[in-house]
Amino acid sequence: METTYFNGKYIPKDEVRISPDDRGFLFADGVYEVIRWYDGFFYDINSHLTRLKRSLRELRINWPEADSFPTIAGKLLNFNKLEDQPAMVYLQVTRGQARRSHSFPSPEVPITSYAYSWGFSPDITSIETGIKVMLKEDIRWSRCDIKSVSLLPNTMSFQEACENGLKECIFVRNGNITEGSHSNIFFVSNGTLFTHPESNHILSGVTRKNILRIAQECGIKIREEAMQENRIRFVQEAFITNTSAEVTPVIELGGNTLGDGVPGPVTKIIRKEFYDEIKVLKG
Ligand code: PMP
C-alpha cells in the first residue's frame, strides 16, 4: 500500500480526501516541487526548498510547514521502502478549501498539502543518444518563474510534441528561445554556452543552476543570454536540463539538425562532470 503525506499525516493514498472546493482544483491556485533521490541523497534539496518558499511567497500562500519538506520527503521514502533505489518525491501545496471566489479566503483557511514518492528509472536512451524537440510560440503567462500547478499551456504543448514523435516542446517568446514545457535549454555556439537568463519568462531550474556552475568550473565560456530563433543555424549543440532528464542532448530543434545530429563534445563533457559529481556525493 502506497503511503502519502496529506495535511500533516502519513496515510494510504486511497484515504486522501481533497474537497471539490479546494482552490487547487478550482483555480490551480497552488505550487509544487519535484525532488530526486539518488539512492543515498536528495539532489540539491536546499535549492528546491528555497524555490518552493519563493513560489509560496510570490503567491502569498502561507504554509508554515515549508521547512519540513526534506523531512516529509525522507519519511515518504522510508514508509514506501524506496531508500535503496532511485526515486522521486512530488509535493503540492494549495491555498486550501473555500467557497469559490476569485478573492483569497478571508480569514485564511488551512493550506492543503500533499506529497507522494515513487521509484524512478531515468530515460537512459534519450540521455545517451539525444532527443528531437519542437519549437512553438510561448503561450504561457508572464510569471513562469513561479512553480505554479497552472500548467495547461505546458501540458498542451508537450502533448503536441508527443503527437509529433518529439520529446519536448521548446518555447519562443518575441523571437527568443525561453525554455521547454518542463525543462530549461542550453545552446553551444562557437564554444560558448548560452541559456536564457533568470527572468519572469523561465523557471529557474535547480539543474540549470548547477549546470552553469559545473560549466564554469570546467572553464567553459558562459553567456546567460537568450538564443534567438533566427540564430539556430549558428548553434552546434543543445541540451535540455531538468531533475529527471539531467543533461539530455538535443540533436534536432524545430526540424533543424544540430551539429552532426549526435550529442556534441561540450554537452558530453558537462554530462560527464554532472555524473562525476553525483558519484562523489553518493560516496
Ligand atoms: N522549466 C520548467 C517549465 C519546468 O517545469 C522544469 C521542471 N521543474 C524546469 C524548467 C527544470 O527545473 P529543475 O531543473 O529544477 O527540475
Summed up:
This protein has 283 residues and is an alpha+beta fold. The protein has helices spanning 23-27, 45-58, 69-79, 124-129, 152-163, 206-217, 265-282; strands spanning 3-6, 9-12, 30-38, 86-94, 112-119, 131-137, 168-173, 176-180, 184-189, 192-195, 221-224, 227-228, 237-242, 246-253, 256-257.
How would you describe what is shown here?
The two termini are 31 Å apart. The chain has helices at 23-27, 45-58, 69-79, 124-129, 152-163, 206-217, 265-282; strands spanning 3-6, 9-12, 30-38, 86-94, 112-119, 131-137, 168-173, 176-180, 184-189, 192-195, 221-224, 227-228, 237-242, 246-253, 256-257. The chain is an alpha+beta fold and 283 residues long. The radius of gyration is 19 Å and the shape is globular. The strands form two sheets. Strands 6, 7, 8, 9, 10, 11, 12, 13, 14 and 15 form a ten-stranded mixed sheet that branches. The chain has a five-stranded antiparallel sheet with strand order 2-1-5-4-3. The site of 4'-deoxy-4'-aminopyridoxal-5'-phosphate has 13 residues, from α6 and β13.
